[in-house]
């Protein structure tokens, strides 16, 4: 068998693999492209009668003295009855003045020092245990979870309460960003979260299926956490773990578009790499723990289980298969002495089609959320075209997550001290 024949076999096999991957991807994710049409075809149902609730706010903070004051001030400015909201902060392994700043801004603060159980999940569990000790009667109907770098629109809690009153055990919100315009990395994060809010969670809610919790800006009921046996979500992506727990129990997570929060996105690729490496490894952990329950839910007709299965696994798997297959074909072509240009052409075609799909997603999101993206117009356009690059960097990150020996929480320093007014005025000045 000559070199050309070997190259031909390699190329034929590669074409088949890339074709199969493309077909599987379309079959798995075409429904998410159809989501784009949902807001046009369906309107939100009116809220049920609003009820008054007592809330606890849970904030896990590690060396966040620069930003936590703005979050606490934004909570104090809420239009919802202040007497019905109690703010708790766990200063988790802090070496700065986070605890002092939080107390000065009216929060009840607990300090935690534990270098073995590291992560937001452990900090939240510790905080809830301390709250239950101080308030044995469990007077809170629901618990908000925020990150220290968040700031809230003044109507945030009031809007979340309206959705919570509809009977949901868990509610998530609209996630915007403080620093969209910093660079292509912060914009990539921000655009993804905007898309997740409006073209995943909003559409899920309109269709009557379950939304998904995304790290921060969500609310869960006392009943929900009691039925779960307390907060025991300690995987690297505790938010996804909590989401899957809810979905496999048959609960629908609600979505409140009018409740808007802002958070600070990473701007350095090294920080982004470590954070998304943790997310990728966390997805694998969640699938390992809940994969059987999700599959069972799918077989019993749960669209929410299917939707969440797609959210945590297949895209990364398909991307890795495509990457490995194309790298292997390239290597074999080099060894055979032929066909390298054809292999590279096939790889380029696969990357191009992937980039076009991501660009469409980004463009639709940019257009519809244009007024809520606080950045110069030219940056909105530019970073829409860098969005596919940001998403493609997930491929090597997902690959690395399979082999990295130590993947854990790494603190990301937050320095963007800004109020909602600051964020909006900056956008107005540069629009």
SSE blueprint and pairings:
Elements: H1 3-34, H2 38-41, E1 55-61, H3 68-76, E2 85-92, H4 98-104, E3 108-112, H5 120-134, E4 142-147, E5 151-152, H6 156-164, E6 170-177, H7 184-207, E7 218-221, H8 222-227, H9 238-248, E8 253-263, H10 269-299, H11 303-312, H12 314-336, H13 340-368, H14 377-392, H15 394-403, H16 420-430
Parallel strand pairs: 1-2, 1-4, 2-3, 6-8
Antiparallel strand pairs: 4-7, 5-8, 6-7
Could you explain the architecture of this structure?
With about 425 residues, the protein is α/β, with parallel strands linked by helices. The protein has a domain at about 55-265: Alpha-Beta Complex (Spore Coat Polysaccharide Biosynthesis Protein SpsA, Chain A), CATH 3.90.550.10. About 55% of the residues lie in helices and about 10% in strands. It contains 16 helices and eight strands. It has helices at about 5-35, 40, 70-75, 100-105, 120-135, 155-165, 185-205, 220-225, 240-250, 270-300, 305-310, 315-335, 340-370, 375-390, 395-405, 420-430; strands spanning about 55-60, 85-90, 110, 140-145, 150, 170-175, 220, 255-265. The chain has an eight-stranded mixed sheet, sandwiched between helices. Strand 1, helix 3 (about 70-75) and strand 2 form a beta-alpha-beta unit. Helix 9 (about 240-250) packs parallel to helix 10 (about 270-300) and helix 10 (about 270-300) runs antiparallel to helix 11 (about 305-310). The chain is globular. The N and C termini lie far apart (about 65 Å). Residues about 1-5 have low confidence and may be disordered.
